[in-house]
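Lab notebook, entry 316. We have the chain sequence and a SMILES string for fe (ii) ion, and the next step in the workflow is to get a structural model of the bound complex before anyone spends time on docking refinements. Request logged below.

Task: model protein plus fe (ii) ion, output structure tokens.
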Amino acid sequence: MNKIDSLEDRFQSRIDKEEKIEARDWMPDGYRKTLIRQISQHGHSEIVGMLPEGNWITRAPSLKRKLALLAKVQDEAGHGLYLYSATETLGISREELLDQLHTGKAKYSSIFNYPTLSWADIGAIGWLVDGAAIMNQVALCRTSYGPYARAMVRICKEESFHQRQGFDILLTMCNGSVEQKEMVQDAVNRWWWPSLMMFGPNDSDSPHSAQSLKWKVKRLSNDELRQRFVDMTIPQAKILGIELPDPLLIYNETRGHYDFGEIDWEEFRQVVGGNGPCNKERMAARIKAHEEGSWIREAAVAYAEKKKNYEKASVA
Ligand SMILES: [Fe+2]
Ligand SMILES: [Fe+2]
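Result returned:
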């Protein structure tokens, strides 16, 4: 057995025993690369995900709704920062991470390339998009990389609040006027399929999944998570009294799960490939915010430098 084999074997046996891998531990290059890609993509999704909802902060229908939405969007910024910090422990800098986002080299969740047309969209995002995110993230609390798993524990607590506030927006509207209920139905019609796409391609078309499951970077496959989400959401749609836009949605007694129709994978490919309704707008907004924030980064560096020099002088 050569040295590399034994290191890899030892690494895999730690993972098999459910031990967490920490930043200074030896890890295979592929594991490091996979994590950098996955955690940064997750962080970018939190940051870009603020944009569609930020669109409604000034137009929220009451002070209570405005406060909750503002708090939610701030939570998402916090999630982005925890995740960027977790990615940095793998040896990549924040500048590099942001550069990958701004040049289109790194992806973020395709769901955030859809527009938010009415207040009901904010409810639908909380209910469906945060709901799908939780399904994925609860499983990631047990991921093998320690800094990622620990970030997920806190993020999940906040995500479940997001889902509940989204559902509460929709329930209030569904108990309101006919027009309000129609707005909810319209929003759910538009957000349902993109939410199912959030779990990624079918397992049969997801070539890296097997390795990620072996390394316990992923704990459940895309199709398993998607099925759990569908099963969880249907009873909630019944409480709202709305229809989900899929005529093939039916409970399958044999499987003990709901069957559902085929996702439009061509639409998924188009949106992931940069041709969704808002891809260009989202990136332009992020780049503008980054450029306009350069003065604060420069000021922070200058302040840190000044403080260091002051401390050095006072020691001498
Ligand atoms: Fe989040
Ligand atoms: Fe969230």
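Notes for the group: The longest strand covers residues 250-252. Worth checking against the assay data. Residues 139 and 220 are 7 Å apart (CA to CA).
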